[in-house]
Specification:
Helices cover 41% and strands 13% of the residues. The protein contains 17 helices and 14 strands.
Length: 454
């Protein structure tokens, strides 16, 4: 079928507020040209992030009603724990209030000055938590990931040779663990193959280095494996997911992505001694080990969401609808990271706006243009998010992250119509100057002003 049909019916609706261009101009200026500062009521289509912005199912909402809010040993925890064990095979499972809390606990325990943590590509909160501990975060993506137009089926893969060279250069003692992000958000939502995970695991085994997953989007990654990796096409998503986790010594998970919930995180650890230390730190900073900063109702919704996310009808719709947006933007003329990723489309703003140099933040300029034109909120993944000091990212991207089960086909078609107008005006957009820069994760709270149009 050519028509993409949502595999669900809409039971509850939320009104959207339409704004005028004049209103959006004022709102942008009041927000200092940082869309994180724009109130959600002033956004028509919100593609800022897919994290915690999805819609829950009727079964998830009904599960919330049986939430056990006992401080210790709540039944809701055991239902959550059993579901995670069933899917991942891990025995030691710590709930946290969100993914970055799991990252903070992990890297407070294993990070520190002199340590080096390799990854195919760290996302912003992972990198920030590593660097906050005093350790160094190193990205080791394959060369194909640096070419937006390369249609390699697994551009999220880690460069195994580069990992070997890093180990040789810094020494095994400096590397507390190796992390692989599935799917690879910073590389355009691109998947990692089972073959690559096994190759990374083999390197880690030879050197005695634990391998962890950043598994926020584990189900989407598994669906890409089923679609693209030889020998995987007839397998169940559940079995591919288990293969991925079986290769790992641990994982951090933001449940706000493939957990299909609005809040929550998970830390998985196999090593008993490290798990005990994580327990103590969880109790100190998040809550008791059977709630970890979450209400019992949150654990119930998460347990149900982890079941729903591996349903193939849902994943087929999710991946195909994202690809549809990418195909439409390519047809207009937008340069994007190809092939389309699982949760988002990434526009190459540096290529789209060559008249704006990286120091004037072309990605942020495009973000402002999309909001000004149609009330669409997106996010820059470039010199604002990953720049600063002597560091300059290879690509200046803008991410259109698709919330799960929220927008319909007509919303996407409206976005495409707005993108056509933005593309027509692209040579007119001004660059920006940063007027305020916070010490960490500057893209969240930085302030800008538009430069005079040349």
């Amino acid at each position: 079928m050519k028509t993409i049909i949502e595999p669900f019916r809409i039971k509850v609706v939320e009104p959207l507020r339409m704004t005028t261009r004049e209103e959006r101009e004022r709102i942008l200026r009041d927000a200092y040209f940082n869309v994180f500062n724009i109130p959600a009521r002033d956004v028509l289509i919100d593609l800022l992030t897919d994290s915690g912005t999805g819609a829950m199912s009727s079964l998830q909402w009904s599960a919330i009603m049986r939430g056990d809010e006992s401080y210790a040993g709540a039944e809701s925890f055991f239902r959550f724990r059993d579901r995670v064990q069933e899917i991942t095979g891990f025995d030691h499972i710590l709930p946290t209030h969100q993914g970055r809390a799991a990252e903070r606990i992990l890297f407070e325990l294993v990070g520190g000055p002199g340590k080096v943590v390799p990854n195919n590509a760290h996302f912003d909160t992972t990198r920030a938590n590593i660097e906050h501990s005093g350790a160094e975060a190193v990205d080791l993506g394959i060369p194909e990931a640096a070419d937006p137009t390369n249609r390699h089926p697994f551009k999220g893969n880690m460069d195994v040779g580069a990992l070997e060279r890093l180990i040789e250069r810094v020494g095994v003692e400096a590397i507390p663990l190796c992390m692989v992000t599935v799917t690879n958000n910073s590389a355009g939502g691109q998947p990692v193959s089972l073959e690559n995970l096994r190759a990374v695991r083999a390197v880690c085994d030879r050197h005695g280095i634990p391998m962890f997953l950043d598994a926020c989007r584990f189900a989407e990654n598994a669906f890409f494996i089923k679609q693209r990796e030889p020998g995987q096409g007839q397998r169940e998503i559940r079995d591919i997911v288990r293969d991925m986790f079986d290769l790992a010594d641990g994982a951090t998970i933001s449940a706000k992505k493939d957990g299909l919930v609005n809040i929550g995180g998970i830390l998985l650890i196999r090593d008993k001694a490290l798990a005990q230390r994580a327990d103590a730190l969880l109790i100190l900073t998040e809550g008791f080990v059977t709630y970890g900063g979450l209400a019992g109702r949150d654990l119930e919704a998460l347990a149900q969401g982890l079941d729903e996310v591996i349903h193939e009808d849902y994943l087929a719709y999710r991946i195909r609808s994202t690809a549809y947006l990418g195909e439409k933007l390519l047809a207009i003329g937008f340069p994007i990271v190809e092939p389309p990723g699982g949760h988002a489309i990434y526009i190459d703003a540096g290529k789209l706006l060559p008249h704006i140099p990286p120091a004037q933040f072309p990605g942020q300029a495009l973000v402002c243009a999309l909001y000004r034109e149609a009330g669409i909120r997106s996010v820059e993944i470039g010199s604002v998010m990953f720049g600063g000091g002597d560091h300059a990212p290879a690509l200046e991207l803008v991410r259109l992250a698709i919330p799960r089960r929220v927008y319909t086909q007509s919303h996407v078609d409206y976005l495409v119509e707005a993108a056509e107008e933005v593309y027509r005006q692209r040579t007119e957009f001004p660059g920006l100057r940063m007027t305020y820069e916070p010490p960490y994760l500057r893209h969240f709270t930085a302030k800008f002003e538009e430069l005079p149009r040349s």
